[in-house]
Amino acid sequence: MTAFLALMTSLPTGNSTLRMRVWRALRNTGCGVLRDGVYVLPVESPRAAALAEAGSEIKSAGGFAVNVEVELKSYAQLEHVRKLFDRSEEYGALVARIHAAKAALQRLGKRKADTLVQRLRRLLEELFEVDFYPGPARLQAKDAMAALEREAQRLRSPGEPHPAKRKVRRLDLKKYRNRTWATRKDLWVDRLASAWLIKRFIDRNAKFVWIDHPRDRPKGSIGFDFDGAQFTHVDGHVTFEVLLASFGLDDDPALASIGHAVHFLDIGGIPVADARGLETMLRGIKAKARGDDEMVLEANKVFDFFYSAYAQKSAA
């Protein structure tokens, strides 16, 4: 980027309320301060329109404001302006908070820990939005956040399965009907999505058993999402994806889209636009549900809605 938008201002004296409001609005854009009263943003910034809005507010309050486009002519000029957008210190401060949170997770309890992780994730994403020239600090922060989320997931689900090394075989759907399915208690994303998939697409008469340990699996039941289960993580795939592949459901675009979101929320990887919304809804259900049976009933409605939306999008 060599083109920048600049807002040159002179605010009316004595109007501290206006000064604070404009300062907050400009700070949220991630603009650089070239000098006192001169703010710049890359032309391609999605928040560039906020400069014009701030200028209009200043003029309506009796101040001076003018918006101009600046084209830099030399590499030296570009480097000077780009330094205004260096987020290294902000990333450093956030990484320190992430490390402190990771050390504190175990004593916080699940609900407080989840709230803290979500808050830090939101702060990181807000920082990403104003990081116009990403560098090593961004990668360090991203890695630190991923480590925090893995630790939170480990504490939330201590029995999380280890990926098995085997091929996923195509199975006969008819042999998996009217069965009892068993998985670990205290359900979360992969197990909730898998239970929904089983009930809606594999075994409509399925009965579920929530167990404390793999050894508690009832004789004759089908285990899923724990070490040693028939259906569990395989290589880089979560249980939901393994079920899709095992029963030939992975050619359904709507189910595949849900699978991408479940994968990201369960083990990380490529971000999925709808994943955080799905996570928020499931967290709300988890906070209200009285036990795993009720959680499955409510989560099934959410997955039904997601499936309908994805199916409609695919058809269009």
Any overview of this molecule?
- This protein has 316 residues and is α/β, with parallel strands linked by helices.
- Helices cover 54% and strands 12% of the residues.
- The chain contains eleven helices and seven strands.
- It has helices spanning 16-29, 49-60, 75-82, 88-108, 110-129, 136-156, 189-202, 239-246, 253-267, 275-288, 292-315; strands at 3-10, 32-35, 38-42, 64-71, 180-184, 207-211, 222-223.
- It has a four-stranded antiparallel β-sheet, with helices on one face. It has a three-stranded parallel β-sheet with strand order 6-5-7, with no helix packed on it.
- β5 (180-184), α7 (189-202) and β6 (207-211) form a beta-alpha-beta unit.
- α4 (88-108) runs antiparallel to α5 and α7 packs across α11.
- The longest helix has 24 residues, at 292-315.
- It is elongated, with a radius of gyration of 25 Å.
